[in-house]
Write a structure and sequence with these properties.
By secondary structure, the protein is mostly helical. The model has no long low-confidence stretch (mean pLDDT 89). It has one domain. It contains 1 helix and no strands. The relative contact order is 0.03. The longest helix is centred in the middle third of the chain and has 103 residues, at 2-104.
Length: 105
């Protein structure tokens, strides 16, 4: 009977020791999970901030694109005006030449 009692005490001591070890492991895992959750929250906040910045950049790019389209249209108009101006200058030169030729006749 004493042998069975000693065996029972030994077994209960081993079980108690294993339960303490398991408790330590659970505390360690819980601490690690808490750390990961905290890091995830910080990462999510940073990602949200980056998304807001990206949205504002997208709006700015759209505005710049519209401005560039207006600039392109203005340049096309100016080119056309310059071509007409050259034609007007050439016309006035030709007009003078014709006037000189008519004088000589």
């Amino acid at each position: 009977m004493k042998k069975a009692k000693k065996q029972s005490e030994k077994t209960s001591n081993i079980v108690a020791l294993e339960l303490r070890r398991l408790g330590v492991i659970i505390e360690h895992v819980d601490g690690t999970v808490s750390l990961v959750v905290e890091q995830y929250g910080d990462t999510k906040k940073t990602l949200d901030n980056h998304s807001k910045i990206l949205d504002s950049h997208t709006e700015m790019i759209g505005s710049i694109k519209m401005d560039i389209e207006v600039i392109k249209a203005d340049i096309t108009f100016i080119k056309g005006g310059l071509k007409r101006k050259v034609d007007t200058e050439e016309f006035s030169i030709l007009e003078r030449r014709v006037a000189l030729l008519e004088k000589h006749r």
